[in-house]
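Why run this: before we spend reagent on co-expression, it is cheaper to look at a predicted model of the complex and decide which construct boundaries make sense. The entries below are exactly what would go into the expression plan.
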Amino acid sequence: MSALLPVRDTLDIIGGKWKLLILISIWEGNKHFREIERSIPKLSTKVLSKELKDMEENQLIIRTVLNGFPVRTQYTPTEHSKTLKKVILELQNWGINHRKEIFGDTSEKDNSIRV
Amino acid sequence: MSALLPVRDTLDIIGGKWKLLILISIWEGNKHFREIERSIPKLSTKVLSKELKDMEENQLIIRTVLNGFPVRTQYTPTEHSKTLKKVILELQNWGINHRKEIFGDTSEKDNSIRV
DNA sequence: GTAACTGGTTACTAAAAGGTAACTGATTAC
DNA sequence: GTAATCAGTTACCTTTTAGTAACCAGTTAC
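The model came back. C-alpha cells follow.
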C-alpha cells in the first residue's frame, strides 16, 4: 500500500532515540555542540556527532562555522524542519492517549507543548 | 521538554522497520501468521513473531487461537489501533513533502511496497 | 606552565538486533 | 510412506548500534 513508503521515509529521518530530542533542543535555543550535548542527558559526543550529520544531510538543520578564537559552530533549524511540528503534535497526542488507554493514566500532569 | 516523553512513547510503539507495515497488512485483511508473513517481503518468521508479540502487548492487535485441524491463529486490529490512522496520515504527508523538498521529486512514480 | 574551553575524531569494546536454518506436533493430500 | 501446511521456537552466527575514553589544535585564564 502506498502509505508505507512515505511513512517509512519519515521514520527513517525522525525515528530513533535522539533526533527529535536534538531538534527540540535546538528549537529551544541551544545552538552550539557542547550546549546541545549538555542539554540532553545520556547523549554521548559520538552519537550527537553522527545524529547532527544525518540531520544536516536531511536538511533539518544548518551547520555554520563561526571564525573566532575558541572555534565555534552553530546549529540552526531550517524552515523546512518546522513543518515537523504538525507531525510531532500528532505523535505527542497519540502518545498521551495511548498511555491513558493502556495504563488508565488520567493524571495529565504536563501536556504543554514546549516545542 | 514535555513533548518528548509522549513522542518517544509513540515512537517506541510504532517506530522501527516493521510495525507499521504489519499493522497496515492486517488492516488490509491479512489475518493469519503465514499470510502476514508472505504479504511483507524480506520479513522473517522470527522478527514477525517478535513484532506481533510487542504489538499485542501494546494492544494494537488481538491474537486469537482458533481450534481447528491445521491450528490457526488470527490477528485482528483493535479499535484503539485505528486511532493511529491520523498519525500515519501526518507521517505520510510529511514524507511526501519532504521528498519533494529534498529531491524536487514530483513524479510520485513508485508506490509499490518497497521493502 | 597548567588546566580548561571549543568541536569534534578515532580506536576499542559491549550490547542489541537481525539473518539462517533446523525443528516441533498435528493433520491433510497423494 | 512422503511431502506439505499450520504457527511458531530455538540455537548459532553476523551485523549494526552504542558506550568509553583518549586525543587533536588553538586559545584563554590563573
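Residues 32-34, 45-46, 48-49, 65, 68-73 of chain A lie near DNA strand C (CB under 10 Å from a C1'). The interface with chain B takes residues 1-11, 13, 15-17, 20-21, 24, 28, 58-59, 80, 83-84, 86-88, 90-99, 101-102, 110-115 of chain A (CB under 8 Å). Bring this page to Monday's planning discussion.
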